[in-house]
Amino acid sequence: MISYRAPVAAGAVLLALLLPGCAPTDEPDSAATPSGSASTSACAPADLSTKTAGTLTIGTDKPAYSPWFVDDDPSNGKGFESAVAYAVADELGYDRTAVKWVTATFNSVIQPGVKPYDLDINQFSITPEREKAVDFSSGYYDVTQAVVTVKGSKAAGVKTLAGLAGLKIGAQVGTTSYKAITDVIKPTAGPKVFDDNDKAKLALANGQIDALVVDLPTGLYLAAADLKNGVLVGQLPATTSGTIEQFGIVLEKGSSLTSCVSQAVDALRGNGTLKTLETTWLTEAAGAPLLK
User: Fold this and answer.
1) Which label site among 64, 99, 113, 283 has the fewest CB atoms less than 10 Å from its CB?
2) Are residues 113 and 199 in the same domain?
3) Closest to 36 measured CA to CA, from 126, 102, 105, 100
């Protein structure tokens, strides 16, 4: 879920112009290292132990929000994560017709136990805490946090981190966006916490908070298409840990597929496919100044 999750907009054409939610996480620090190490074992469909032989079953939440998915339909290949999922499937040798999508709620995915899918893609930040319960592939997206507000807000004209410190800043509980508030912005009043991003957006619209922290793609989407008179204040620098927050594909703990999925993601990063998909479905970060 993302812990930020922007609703699907009617105008899908905006997606090509928009850049990632706040990235949900259970643990403050994120890790870029995949749970499974790459191996030389065969990674063709005939060699992979999937839930259904010859089929790659992929899970994600519902609704499936933009710009990660388009029209709440993961199977159409549109949106960044849908496109990444099909690219991974192709790298593993699965035709589009051999890919099956199932619904999996955000919280259920990061719990230990047997899953109804082979892998899940849903803006999951890779964290040490989560790696105790599930496997992660190599990271397929490097996440930046951003600050969003509305015109007329005290945050609308802010250009620096110091300018945010005295304001009321909110984020969804349990997310890396919340961690960015505590570690980077450090507001004097402390962060304002919300159960979900819809409640946080409502609080922003009603003036209960001055700004909202989400991941950059979600921030761009909120500012351009979802919030009335939305304004993207800017990007936040990395947290004090200095690690790069990444989204990873989730698999069952100890899954025999983890190494192959990581190899596929690594190949897509190496050949430029991930960057191409990011450019296609998410915006360039140039439109979001770095707050210092």
Assistant:
1) 113
2) no
3) 126
